[in-house]
Q: What sequence folds into this?
């Protein structure tokens, strides 16, 4: 028998037997189950004792392990690198290096058990290029859908810099301050090859140069125009909407899913519930910063503002869950607190810990519910005959402890399209290049007192620490 990692294939027949199957639909787990893969798709799922006769090119013994759909992360920014500042996010580095770096990062994402990602907001056209490179087989990585730069007004999170700097072409957002500019930008991005349009529908509660996050950054009429034109051209729309009113606009305009929603009130939630539009809260960035930001030098100001957001989110999102709103799972991978390949399953733990999800519900969010974000509503997300064989064999029981999905040492098999990823290669490592990051000269200010200590009767000059 060959081991899973020795399989060259994707063309043959594979039997995975003996494991506990979680199919992603919400059906109870099946003990001692089997999955048959033929070519790139699933051919059969059922009890191991009833599995169809061979011959098989490969048999994977999954006894004591869990077989489940590959995870989908509905919120990854492939072009960001792993940014620590907004200047890195919107200025560094150039398009060419960003694209190569993004492609390199994608192998880590796949090897972490993530077989599908959506990039809702890309610098340059990086996400489209990386998606195509992976689809063409030039680079190993997950299935992917790509947005371009976020459609932004001056009140949006996508307009990062002061007015006198403007919005450079490297920015995460593209400025569209009128309805006509928005419609034209939708057409331009569709021609560029995007799968979806991302609207930066509010600011951020930790404002750099944009207003805080509790007002919509565009009008309902403008949002309707974007959604109408995007849908007319056969693409999807999602929106960054922390502001509750922005969520209400999103519901009324008919976006395909809403991102965040932290500052919703019950009326906003009611509007969303009426439509059946799902929400992708993306709490990982916030919770990682609040729980572990001190380990990586996050400022107290940032941690405090994120804590307030989480408190608000947990309250309204728990209500949303009880009311039956459909949840998607995303992490905002691409920041220094959400590096690629490390935290894609963390959102599931957060759903369980903060929002009272069952582990099964959390898994459904990251598989079946997320299929919409990667255009795999019919072809992916769950283990069913006819769907892509994108699956994991996990050494552990995620229904007992959802955190096992974050430990990549427990991934016995990562299969995408019927092919096993070679997990024997060492985890990719790279050096940071000069100018890849914002270039601090120093982190703090060298006052006389910094060297010699405070003098009696003389007030010490302030030291703002690491800023923000
Ligand atoms: Zn994001």
A:
């Amino acid at each position: 028998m060959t081991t899973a990692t020795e399989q060259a294939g994707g063309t043959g027949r594979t039997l995975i037997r003996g494991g506990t199957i979680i199919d992603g639909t919400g059906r109870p787990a099946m003990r001692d189950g089997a999955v048959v893969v033929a070519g790139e798709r699933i051919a059969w799922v059922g009890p191991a004792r009833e599995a169809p006769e061979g011959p098989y090119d490969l048999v994977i013994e999954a006894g004591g392990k869990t077989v489940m759909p590959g995870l989908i992360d509905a919120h990854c920014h492939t072009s960001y690198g792993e940014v620590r500042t907004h200047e890195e996010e919107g200025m560094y580095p150039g398009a060419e290096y960003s694209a190569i770096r993004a492609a390199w990062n994608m192998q880590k994402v796949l090897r972490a058990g993530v077989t599908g990602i959506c990039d809702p907001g890309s610098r340059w056209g990086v996400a489209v290029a990386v998606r195509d490179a992976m689809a063409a087989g030039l680079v190993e990585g997950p299935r992917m859908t790509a947005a371009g730069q976020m459609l932004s007004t001056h009140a949006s999170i996508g307009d990062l810099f002061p007015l006198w700097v403007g919005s450079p072409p490297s920015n995460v957002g593209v400025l569209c301050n009128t309805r006509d500019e928005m419609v034209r930008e939708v057409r331009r991005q569709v021609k560029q090859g995007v799968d979806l349009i991302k609207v930066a529908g509010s600011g951020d509660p930790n404002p750099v140069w944009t207003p805080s996050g509790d007002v919509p950054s565009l009008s309902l009429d403008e949002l309707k125009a974007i959604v109408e034109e995007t849908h007319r051209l056969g693409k999807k729309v999602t929106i960054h909407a922390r502001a509750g009113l922005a969520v209400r606009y999103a519901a009324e305009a008919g976006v395909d899913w809403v991102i965040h929603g932290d500052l919703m009130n019950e009326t906003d939630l009611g509007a969303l519930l009426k439509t059946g539009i799902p929400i992708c809260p993306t709490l990982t960035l916030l919770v990682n910063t609040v729980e572990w930001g001190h380990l990586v030098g996050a400022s107290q100001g940032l941690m405090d503002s994120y804590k307030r957001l989480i408190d608000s989110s947990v309250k309204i999102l728990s209500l949303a869950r009880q009311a039956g709103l459909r949840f998607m799972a995303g992490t905002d991978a691409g920041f220094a607190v959400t590096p690629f390949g490390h935290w894609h399953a963390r959102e599931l733990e957060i759903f369980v810990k903060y929002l009272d999800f069952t582990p099964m519900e959390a898994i459904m969010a990251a598989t079946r519910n997320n299929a919409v974000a990667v255009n795999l509503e019919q072809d992916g997300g769950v283990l069913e005959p006819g769907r892509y064989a994108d699956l994991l064999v996990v050494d552990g029981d995620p229904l007992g402890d959802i955190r096992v999905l974050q430990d990549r040492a427990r991934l016995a098999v990562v299969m995408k399209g019927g092919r096993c990823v070679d997990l024997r290669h060492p985890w990719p490592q790279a050096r940071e290049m000069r100018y890849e990051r914002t270039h601090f000269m120093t982190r703090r200010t060298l006052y006389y007192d910094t060297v010699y200590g405070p003098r009696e009767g003389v007030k010490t000059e302030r030291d703002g620490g690491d800023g923000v």
Remarks:
- The CA atoms of residues 149 and 208 lie 19 Å apart.
- DSSP finds twelve helices and 17 strands in the chain.
